[in-house]
Write a structure and sequence with these properties.
A hairpin with a 2-residue loop joins strand 2 and strand 3. The chain is an alpha+beta fold. The longest helix has 28 residues. It has 3 domains: 108 residues, Butyryl-Coa Dehydrogenase, subunit A, domain 1, CATH 1.10.540; 116 residues, Butyryl-CoA Dehydrogenase, subunit A, domain 2; 129 residues, Butyryl-CoA Dehydrogenase, subunit A, domain 3. Helix content is 42%, strand content 11%. The protein has a 4-stranded antiparallel β-sheet, with no helix packed on it. Strands 1-4-5 form a 3-stranded mixed β-sheet. The chain is built from 12 helices and 7 strands.
Length: 430
């Protein structure tokens, strides 16, 4: 524990005593929380944060939750956009975008992946053409979380096709509320539609929304991806978060803040529930009379061990960071571990359920009926259907292995000419 941590928590508790009021609107409360630096305390002090470490920031979230107050706005604004802009943005851009992020006034999404550029993100083809003080954007993005409620987006475009692909990418803060933006939901096998495909037709973005400099988008994007992988590996979410959504589209800013405190966030099987999978499956094994089956016990033990390894690894990382050190590739390792845990939970859960694993509510109308029949089965099937996602989004497992091999272990890359061949001369995917 750092010397500053007790003082920070004491300051926060005193601030909460003075400022928390459940009868405030969500927007009013987030205004107080964000402008005081408590929404994103890990951001620098010149970026509406408090310059705290990740561990201290988690403690801040826990303190807000334990106090019974509504936590910081969730979503990709705080998780990805804010730290990226704090790292690469100009002072003017920080002042333009960060207040609306930390106060929840604007929700963000991520326009990175494309139908032909997912794992090979640098192969993106969405075009950005300069037109005076603006850029005209045309292209298609896919797997866009929260696109349907986003006010702004982190947008990657091909700004120069005559240089190698990594060198001709630019990163913009993009207005989602403009003509030419079409958002189509993608229905998942869980029955939900948390992802979207986004079509951009003659959209416009001002030149002063360029983050990190012209054709430097790959470096800026890697900053965003590093924060994404760290968040996913750690389980994502906020200890203190409620069910209120940021931004102008969701409609929660005008509602009473106290009504959202400690309401469930996410869904069964989401990364935020990874740590509790062992308990759910142990309970299911007991309920089905299979708790003494040696194969079941072996699977449950393995699941418990993987969770404990993850917990000890994070503790080791905290100790090293307190000494100014780190575990190379930890974010990639944590994400791979999460994927493996969810696959094991999926296989173990369906084995325990047998035929009951075929019953699932794909609509809200059927959910109460199915959960009344077997609440554990509904949760386990949800985990099983969701388990395919983490090994794909945020960079596939194969990409994580490549990053560890090349950047951590120093193994040679696969031979290619991507670094020297102009993007316009490369064969295209899809």
């Amino acid at each position: 524990m750092s010397d500053a941590k007790p003082a920070v928590i004491a300051e926060l508790e005193a601030w909460l005593e003075e400022n928390w009021d459940p009868d405030l609107t969500v927007g009013q409360w987030w205004e107080r929380l964000g402008l005081a630096g408590w929404s994103a305390p890990s951001l620098p002090t010149d970026a509406y944060g408090r310059g705290l470490s990740r561990e201290d920031s988690v403690r801040v979230q826990q303190t807000i939750a334990n106090f019974g107050a509504l936590g910081a706005p969730g979503g990709l604004g705080l998780l990805l956009a804010a730290p990226t802009i704090a790292t690469h943005g100009t002072p003017q851009q920080k002042e333009r975008y960060l207040p609306d992020i930390v106060t929840g006034r604007a929700a963000w999404c991520q326009l990175f992946s494309e139908p032909g550029a997912g794992s090979d993100l640098a192969g993106l083809a969405t075009k950005g053409l300069r037109d005076g003080d603006e850029w005209i954007v045309n292209g298609q993005k896919v797997w866009t979380s929260g696109g349907q409620i986003a006010d702004l987006a982190m947008l990657l475009v091909r700004s120069d096709a005559e240089v190698p692909k990594h060198q001709g990418i630019s990163y913009f803060a993009f207005d989602m509320h403009q003509p030419g933006v079409e958002i189509r939901p993608l229905r998942e096998m869980t029955g939900q539609a948390l992802f979207n495909e986004v079509f951009l037709t003659d959209c416009r973005v001002p030149d002063d929304a360029l983050i990190g400099g012209l054709n430097n988008g790959w470096a800026v994007a890697n900053t965003t991806l590093a924060f994404e992988r760290a968040g996913l590996g750690a389980g994502g979410g906020s200890e203190s978060g409620g069910a209120a959504a940021p931004g102008t589209v969701a409609g929660d800013l005008a509602k009473r803040a106290g009504d959202f405190v400690r309401q469930p966030r996410g869904r069964a099987g989401s990364p935020s529930g990874v740590g509790g999978l062992s308990k759910v499956l142990v309970e299911a094994a007991k309920a089905s009379g299979q708790s003494k089956d040696p194969v079941v016990r072996q699977d449950l033990a393995q699941l418990y061990i993987l969770n404990e390894i993850g917990r000890f690894t994070m503790m080791r990382s905290k100790g090293l960071r307190s000494k100014g050190q780190d575990v190379p590739g930890l974010g990639n390792i944590a994400k791979l571990s999460m994927s493996r845990i969810l696959r094991l939970a999926r296989d173990t859960g369906f084995s325990l359920l047998g035929p009951a694993g075929t019953i699932y509510a794909y609509s809200s109308e059927d959910r109460d009926l199915v959960e009344d029949l077997n609440p554990l089965a509904s949760q386990i099937v949800g985990i099983g259907l969701f388990a395919q996602g983490p090994q794909i989004y945020g960079g596939t497992d194969e990409i994580q292995h490549n990053i560890i091999g090349e950047r951590v272990l120093g193994l040679p890359k696969e031979p290619n000419n991507d670094k020297v061949t102009p993007f316009s001369a490369l064969p295209k995917n899809g």
